[in-house]
Design goal:
With 427 residues, the protein is of the alpha/beta class. The chain is 37% helix and 18% strand. Strands 4-5-16-13-14-15 form a six-stranded mixed beta sheet, sandwiched between helices. A five-stranded parallel beta sheet has the order 12-8-9-11-18, with helices on both faces. β13, α7 and β14 form a beta-alpha-beta unit. The longest helix is centred in the middle third of the chain and has 16 residues. It is globular. The two termini are 36 Å apart. Bound molecules: pyridoxal-5'-phosphate and zinc ion.
């Protein structure tokens, strides 16, 4: 196709077909594959723009928002000493003003929310629908409060305490579902199918992935080289896929090394579907083997933001392909190991952590103990969330209240009335 002077195009990983982005999340030929952005810019230029928009050359947007949220990379001293590592780098996505980290909703989900909101505004204009276990919905609620763009979010009732913003907003239509993450996703899909609404797209949304990819870009700018190892606790693996894709862009840049990092992913026991499938080197997740007693397992895990039952693992360009291409592993971590590692991090680095990030620290501690990484290796630790206690010192938090409360498996007719009314008032 003639790509003219587009800033970027989308390419299907499976068949190589190139398409223009019209809020496109799927290959027009119907492949079960991620689409990947291909930017005209070959080299990374850091722009004088706020937050993650300084990496706008590698974001699928034309404009930016005046929001100073982005990842922050530094070389660890505290944890580094505890673990005996000489080249441990931390990219922190959360609130920690002493290190100029300004993500007030305290997780890297804000990195995906920012470019997603801009891309939807530029390319499709529908009202966004976001279903999550809480961190993603909070990030989108915050963006909505800053930009006045309305959003519908669906969250399991048990996660409602994660729904707050640092600025009051009435632009959020929050639907609470008595059930788990999967029930929230199912309801989100029903709402997205209504006219004028668009699902956020999950892992298939290139704005989401390229937003999360700024973690790797920021790390490379700071380290001046690609890391040899990348560590992250995963639920869907989207953040890691994003950093794999960013690593390929960085290799093409030519200035930061030629070798992809090895991806050291971790899941929280007892709910570890990708770990279980990868141990058998299977491309498919088999629920009867990999997700036995899913509901009770999810209730038991400390970091339930990692409880994705339908991760982009098998899809072309997904987690399985990443581990085969770049190399790496998936490990599992108990609640106890995560708690211990979280405490170690808090005392060594002096900022509080999201439980999901504690899973990451625990997996690094285990890799050191089992000598899977050496003391000189260049390691990037993606600290995906933290600063929840710190943000309370500086801001009042406003609870986002549900406008509707439904049972798991409820139909669209159970929420359509409230949504129609909300649309009349807000769009
Ligand atoms: C969502 C989330 C993760 C997992 O990210 P995936 O891209 O779904 O694997 C890790 N940490 C935090 C804090 C999160 O909110
Ligand atoms: Zn295709």
């Amino acid at each position: 196709m003639n790509v003219g002077n587009e800033k970027y195009v989308l390419r299907c990983v499976e068949c190589g077909k190139v398409v223009k982005d019209e809020c496109t999340d799927r290959c027009p030929l119907g492949h079960n594959s991620l689409l990947r952005t291909e930017y005209r810019a070959k080299q990374l230029t850091v722009r004088n723009l706020p937050g993650l928009f300084k990496y706008i050359d590698f974001l699928p947007v034309e404009s930016h928002l005046p929001v100073d949220s982005g990842p922050v990379t530094y070389k660890s001293e505290g944890l580094s000493k505890e673990l005996g590592l000489k080249n441990l780098y931390i990219t922190f996505s959360g609130y920690w003003p002493e290190r100029h980290a300004n993500i007030k909703t305290c997780s890297f989900k804000e990195l995906e929310a920012l470019p997603t909101v801009v891309r939807v505004k530029e390319k499709c204009k529908d009202t966004l629908v976001v279903a999550s276990a809480g961190n993603t919905s909070r990030a989108f609620a915050q963006m909505s409060s800053l930009t006045q763009s309305p959003v519908v979010t669906v969250v399991p009732k048990c996660c409602l305490d994660r729904m707050w913003t640092t600025q009051e907003t009435d632009n959020v239509c929050l639907i609470s579902v008595k059930g788990d993450y999967t029930d929230a996703i199912n309801m989100g899909e029903k709402i997205s199918s209504l006219d004028g609404f668009a699902g956020e797209g999950g892992a298939k949304n290139v704005a989401r992935r390229d937003g999360m990819a700024t973690v790797l870009l920021d790390a490379v700018v700071f380290m001046k080289r690609l890391p040899e190892y990348y560590f992250q606790g995963v639920g869907s693996g989207t953040g890691a896929i994003a950093c794999w894709e960013a690593s390929m862009r960085i290799i093409r840049d030519g200035r930061f090394g030629k070798v992809l990092p090895k991806f050291c992913l971790s899941q929280n026991l007892p709910f570890v579907p990708m770990y279980s499938a990868w141990m058998d080197r299977r491309r498919e997740i088999v629920p009867e083997k990999d997700m036995i007693d899913a509901e009770s397992s999810i209730r038991e895990m400390r970091a339930n933001v990692l409880s994705n039952r339908n991760p982009p693992y098998s899809v072309a360009g997904g987690v399985y392909d990443m581990l085969c291409d770049a190399g790496g592993t998936i490990e599992c971590v108990t609640n106890r190991e995560a708690d211990d590692a979280g405490r170690l991090f808090v005392s060594a680095e002096e900022i509080d952590l999201d439980p999901a990030a504690s899973v990451t620290i625990a997996s690094l501690a285990k890799a050191v103990e089992e000598q899977r990484v050496g003391s000189q290796d260049r390691i990037l630790l993606n600290v995906t969330g933290g600063g929840y206690e710190r943000v309370r010192e500086d801001y009042d938090l406003y609870e986002v209240k549900p406008c509707s409360d439904v049972c798991a498996g409820a139909g669209i007719e159970d929420v359509k009335g409230e949504i129609d009314e909300w649309v009349r008032e807000h769009t």
